[in-house]
Amino acid sequence: MSGRQAVKREDPNELSRSQTGKGGANKPGDEQERRRTRVKDWRGTLLRIWKYLSVHRAKLLLVLAMTVISSTLGLLGPYLIGAAIDRLMGERGGITLTALLVLLLGSYAVQGIASWLQTYWMIDAAQRTVYAMRTDLFRHLHRLPMSFFAKRQHGELMSRLTNDIDNVSQTLNGSVIQIVSSVLAFSGMLGLMLWLSPILTVITLTIVPLMVLGMKWITSRTGRYFKEQQRNLGELNGFVEETLSGQRIVKSFSLEERVTSDFRELNERLRMSGYWAQMYSGLIPKLMNVLNNLSFAVIAGAGGLLALHDIVTVGVIVTFAEYARQFTRPLNDLANQFNTFLSAVAGAERVFDILDTAPEDRDESGTVAISEVRGEIEFENVSFGYEQGNATLRDISFRIGPGETLALVGPTGAGKTTVVQLLARFYDADAGTIRLDGRDIRGINRNSLRSHIGFVLQDTFLFKGTVRDNIRYGKPEASDAEVERAAKLANAHSFISKLPQGYDTMLGEDGGGISQGQRQLLSIARAMLADPSILILDEATSSIDTVTEISIQDALYRLMKGRTNVVIAHRLNTVRRADLILVLVDGRIAEQGTHDQLMSRQGFYYGLHQAGKQRLAN
Question: Which DSSP category does 2 fall into?
Answer without folding.
Answer: B
